[in-house]
Amino acid sequence: MASENIKKVVLAYSGGLDTSVILRWLKDRFGCEVIAYCADVGQAEETAGLEQKALGTGASKFILADLREEFAADFVFPMMRANAVYEGYYLLGTSIARPVIAKKQAEIARAEGADAVAHGATGKGNDQVRYELSLARLAPELKIIAPWRRADWTFQGRADMIAYADEKKIPITASKEKPYSMDRNLVHVSYEGGILEDPWREPYNDMFQLTVSPEDAPSRPEHVEIEYHAGNPVAINGEALSPAKIIERANEIGGRHGIGRVDLVENRYVGIKSRGVYETPGVTLLTNGHRAVEQLTLDREVLHLRDSLIPRYAEMVYYGYWFAPEREAVQALIDEAQRDVTGTARLKLYKGAVTIAGRKSPNSLYDPAMASFEEAGGYQQSDAEGFIRLAGTRLRALARARAAARPANKGT
Fold it and tell me: Are 213 and 259 in contact (CB under 8 A)?
């Protein structure tokens, strides 16, 4: 540690207790200049007064970056084109936000001539990995300071940090700690820790921010139409919207019907099982609609190949390998498959459930005449006889082999 020579740091800063203390600690520990960088990825937090707070804590500069449209278009949409879901439930809202935050942090560090970046992620979670693997690809020359993993970070918890803030006159508004940890962005709100560490305990209903309880949702279903072009949602109910705005609109619609709540015990990359509760109303709608249009427009083998890659793709996003070559390679295959995924899905929303009520596409591979049981439609049913005979060749061979072996096994 004595050999560390840090002159300027860009800190991922939220204005909360942790990053406020980290900001001042960096100045005390390294005697360096600290730039406070806050990324707006749709967390809906009040940013007014953050600059004054950061400068009052000792930052030389405060940078607020509105990343909502970039986040939606360049990170969330590619992930949705892959229909990515981790361990069957998690739509990766926190996971996908970390690479866009790290990308901007690296850009700022280079523009400002910083020699290091810092973050407040703990040593037990996934976020430290996501930030640092992203930075390894984007700015390998930068030093990374992760205070919670350092031996010279002596704070054991919230009480120690509040005492430090009082001593250093850091402007904080520390209140009673929530009984859980929360993270919000355009995609979702996640909840973990505290009372949720008991996987048998049902979460409080008043905890949720984006969704009403399905029991309290409207007693009449609502239909919504979502238009897609080349795999991306472009309009809701006939209104064209930007990527960020379409997610926001989908959140509003899905939220009032209690769509997208998930309670999951997941496997963190660091080897720990963790219980997370998520609400992802908008992306749940958009993903279901995307699936509906794909049903019409994707060739069977392409669809099956892409679906076989979903667990691997989701794992790469969850683990933090967004900027890794393997994710980029898989993305290229997915995007090629999405060229004809254009059309409209009609969804029915009711009491927490999403069902497909219809789908149409100018690129549809669905042939009503071919599919009909009422007419031939150019399909020769007699052709199926030879097809079935060939498909069953190996099964008949297996049956004969086992039948021949049966008498020899009777005496054993």
Answer: no
Report pLDDT digits (tens) over 89-147.
999 999 999 999 999 999 999 999 999 999 999 999 999 999 999 999 999 999 999 99
Q: What are the mean pLDDT values of the chain's consecutive 10-residue runs (412 residues total)?
A: 81 94 96 97 87 96 98 98 98 98 98 98 96 98 97 91 92 71 95 95 95 98 98 98 98 98 97 97 98 98 98 98 98 98 98 98 93 76 94 97 80 52
Please pick, among 18, 130, 190, 361, the residue that the annotation labels catalytic.
18
28 as an active site residue: the answer is no
pLDDT tens readout for residues 321-364 = 999 999 999 999 999 999 999 999 999 999 999 999 999 999 99
Catalytic residue among 115, 181, 268, 346: 181
Single out the catalytic residue among 81, 127, 327, 340: 127
**Is 206 marked active-site?**
no
181-298+340-360 falls under which CATH superfamily?
Argininosuccinate synthetase, chain A, domain 2 (3.90.1260.10)
| Residue 354 burial class via C-beta count within 10 angstroms: exposed 0-12, middle 13-18, buried 19 and up | buried
- What number of other Cβ atoms are within 10 A of residue 58's Cβ? 18
Domain with CATH 3.40.50.620 in the chain: 8-68+96-168
Catalytic residue among 81, 98, 327, 359: 98
Is 183 known to be catalytic? no
Chain region(s) in the chain for CATH 3.90.1260.10: 181-298+340-360
300 is catalytic: no
pTM recorded for the entire structure:
0.94
| Exposure string for 173-202, b = 16+ CB within 10 A, e = fewer | eeeeeeebeebbbbbbbbbbeeebeeeeee
**Which one is the CATH code of 8-68+96-168: 3.50.50.60, 3.30.70.360, 3.40.50.720, 3.40.50.620?**
3.40.50.620
- Work out the widest C-alpha separation in the chain, in whole angstroms: 89
Contact 36, 13 (CB under 8 A): yes
